[in-house]
Write a structure and sequence with these properties.
By secondary structure, this protein is of the alpha/beta class. The chain is built from 11 helices and 12 strands. A 7-stranded parallel β-sheet has the order 8-7-6-9-10-11-12, with helices on both faces. α4 (106-120) packs across α6.
């Protein structure tokens, strides 16, 4: 019997064309899934005969209850070096190896700035208006001289801050453990949480989702923001309290938001965020570039090949 490999959540149908899966040999059968498999019961049924599963980021969760229902599973590869949706302890207890891949830092940084500019200059709305024959229907706001508040100054947050500086913005930052040893070399001002929300014209989120960061931007923080301020989230949806954010947007507590991540993904078709005019939405595109897919899927193939040879690479657990 061939070794069976499932590639999950290949929404754009590009997994097979962005890596050399044929290098795994004829004894390996690769099966991409282009649609999201919704329920755990359906996942357990459709994946029970696969030896290896490749997960695209955190699109599909793998809790212990699912891992226990996959009797053939031996290797779980996630694109990226971290995946909060996989219970690695449960995988290890079941003897399932979890390996990761590299991903590029700049794609989510570039998308963050695309969203900031789209929101500030009403680019999606003006593009749609022009297609219906209109001309100059909005007035944008400039970024030069404004204050950019960066929540989380890790690899991505630091790159976002550098671009803000290039736009001539004053850059301030806060996170729970941030220090001046990190901010000073970047020319970023370290502030407390309240100051960041009160002073910023644009607040952008770049934290890892955890128990400490879930809901860290809530009703209180949104109420501190300027009525003309924008909120950008390209990190993880639950870092921002979704209900509080929708209320703030509906009642002009803040001027607008640009969002690439959501509590539930894909975002339901009837979700209220889809109906708010002061919101720019993208479908979790932060990491979705040709270059990133080639890197991630290419290293996923390497991980599988190394596992089959008995010398696993990039082991997470």
């Amino acid at each position: 019997m061939p070794t069976r490999v499932a590639i999950l959540d290949d929404y754009q149908g590009v997994a097979l064309s962005t890596a050399d899966w044929s290098s795994l040999g004829t004894s390996v059968a690769v099966c991409p899934f282009h649609e999201r498999i919704g329920s755990e019961d359906e996942l357990a049924e459709r994946l029970r005969s696969f030896d290896i599963i490749v997960a695209m980021r955190e699109r599909t969760p793998f809790p212990s209850s699912l891992i226990e229902r996959l009797p053939s599973l031996k290797l779980l590869v996630t694109t990226g070096r971290r995946n909060a949706a996989i219970d690695v302890t449960a995988a290890a207890a079941r003897g399932v190896l979890v390996c990761g891949t590299a991903t590029l830092a700049m794609p989510p940084v570039e998308l963050t700035w695309g969203l900031i500019l789209a929101l500030a200059r009403h680019i999606p709305r003006e593009s749609l208006a022009m297609r219906s024959g209109a001309w100059q229907t909005t007035i944008g706001v400039g970024l030069h001289g404004k204050t950019l508040g960066v929540i989380g100054l890790g690899r991505l947050g630091a790159d976002v801050a550098r671009v803000g500086d290039a736009f001539g913005m004053k850059v301030i930052a806060w996170s729970q453990n941030l220090t001046r040893e990190r901010t000073d070399p970047l020319g970023v001002e370290l502030v407390d949480k309240e100051s960041l929300f009160r002073r910023s014209d644009v607040v952008t989120v770049h934290l890892v989702l955890s128990g400490r960061t879930r809901g860290i931007v809530g009703e209180r923080e949104l109420a501190m923001m300027k009525p003309a301020a924008f909120l950008i989230n390209t990190a993880r949806g639950p870092i921002v309290d979704e209900h509080a954010m929708i209320h703030a947007l509906r009642h002009s507590v803040i001027a607008g938001a640009a969002l690439d991540v959501f509590d539930e993904e894909p975002l339901p078709a009837d979700h209220p965020l889809r109906r708010l005019e002061n919101v720019v939405l993208t479908p979790h595109l932060g990491y979705v570039t040709t270059e990133n897919y080639r890197l991630a899927y290419g290293e996923a193939v390497e991980d599988i090949r190394a596992f089959l040879a008995g010398a696993p690479l990039r082991v997470i657990a």
